[in-house]
Queue: 2 jobs
Job 1
Amino acid sequence: MRFFSSAYIKELLLLFKITAEKEKELIQLRRRLHMNPELGFSEYETSNLIAEYLEKSGVEVTRGVAKTGVVGLIRGKGDGKTLLLRADIDALPMQETAECEYASLRNGAMHACGHDVHTAVLLGAAGILSETRGNFPGNIKLVFQPAEESIGGALPMIEAGVMENPRVDGAAAFHISELPLGSIGIKKGCVTASPDHFHIRITGRGGHGASPESCVNPVEIGSRIATRLNNIRLDMPSVVSICAFQSGTGENIIPDTALLMGTARALDKATRQRLYEMILSISDEVATSLGGKAEVDYRFLYPPGENDADMTDMFIKAAEAVIGRENIIYQEKSQMVGDDFSYFAERVPSCYVQLGGAIRPLHSSDFDVDERCISIGAEIMSHFALKFLGSI
Ligand SMILES: [Zn+2]
Ligand SMILES: [Zn+2]
């Protein structure tokens, strides 16, 4: 049994009231975003919509941060800490197959990772916190970040100074998930993987398919490298997947070259480095042993993401007050997906949380959510912000 003070209950009721008033508007907003998806660093209409909503809600707005990013600032009453809340705003390069009334109007672009939902949730929280700004000290910085799905907009926003003026003390973000509506999934420690990419260019010596003995077949080299890399098993969680293999033009022509493309993922820096070294050495060893050459072009993308223990505890307490203790799902394992929110988490104590409500898998062509998750998310985020700033 937990007891809440009357001031606490009053604050909570106020949040519920404001969210209930805004729910319809937030769903409409999400639908507008969903119908007009934009890819990384091209989120011009999306940014405009965000900036206009923030301005209408009385939030200080900076547009064009790292090209298409938007930053909102809510100043509370008096000095205090600054909390950064982040939503990613970009869509994926894929075709929507769902036939809902708010399906994507743009060919080859779709909000299949729910970033439209993240944006609506954060705008909802912005509205709530802006209305209650007289009740808390410190500041809320609202970061609407481009290009999470491609090359990453978090680092460019940090380089543009988003962690300063006022200096950020902590950060939080939601990602939609297939957990039940009205629940969250949360975990201390590592929560996202480093989603690195690599290309392996293999050079052999082509010739007639009838005389392989006088050739160095890059297809064979590539096949062996792919088998070895796909089967790397380490003590720590990690994965290597070869996802593309391009070579050859005909049935009887041994080609000169082949190209493998893949991803290597880990949950800690040491394992990440080990995968990198193994990919380099295995590629070289296999290619050399067969008389060919392999060049690896490796791209380190986002670092693994880490949830701070105290921030996570605080988030759980805030969420319990909104959705009840029974709806907090403690996750034991990290997923092997990456998220460049990890750049914020590298700099300040952070918390990255799964929000229940997706009704189809992420990145599927008929992805959708139960839109009630938007107001639930906005309410939890606002409540967490008030807790972080010490007003409740
Ligand atoms: Zn995604
Ligand atoms: Zn995503």
Job 2
Amino acid sequence: MAKSKALHWQEPATEVCPQCNGSGEWVGMFSSGPCANCDGTGLVGSDGEPLSTDDLLPMMRRQRDRAVQQFRQLLQTPGVREALAEHRERLAQKERDEHAALRKGLRGG
Ligand SMILES: [Zn+2]
């Protein structure tokens, strides 16, 4: 049963994929795509084989949860929220300036 299996799940030992050096990308002369050796994850099991979906999905969920937690902790750091607000304002101002320049260009000015 899937439920009892999940209770005993342990994150498998992984290694960086030797084919793509962890990028998950295969880059050829004229095209690129997901690395076939690691299914595009950049990781392989300790046996060098691609990780199974049963292992990958909970690993991805854990990584997502860790990233969300780190982001929340970062927002608690003094000054970060203010810096973020300033950054957003700078981006918005840049966009307004670019739009103004475009409008001016359309008018032939
Ligand atoms: Zn790979």
